[in-house]
Specification:
This protein is mostly helical. The chain is about 40% helix and about 0% strand. It has one domain.
């Protein structure tokens, strides 16, 4: 019983230039994306707590109870997004 074929011959070194070009293109795309979009560290890297609250009706951010919290704690980041 054979699990692996012993007569397989793949010419990896014969394709080294193609793979080097492909790697250079991928690195250029990655660096370009970093420079264009920038790095935006998420909660994993910045630390803190994420609290998600949902309401059945639309809520105005300026009138909510978080207005006091945001004014007393400048490091607090409050954002709103529409539920889908």
């Amino acid at each position: 019983m054979e699990f692996f074929r012993t007569d397989t011959h793949i010419d990896f070194m014969g394709r080294h230039r193609l793979m080097a070009v492909a790697l250079a293109v991928l690195i250029a795309i990655s660096l370009g994306a970093i420079f264009i979009r920038g790095l935006e560290p998420g909660l994993d890297f910045t630390g803190g707590t994420l609290v998600e609250v949902s309401y059945t009706a639309p809520v105005e951010l300026a009138a909510g109870p978080w207005r006091v919290v945001a004014s007393e704690t400048p490091w607090c980041n409050i954002s709103a997004r529409r539920a889908t």
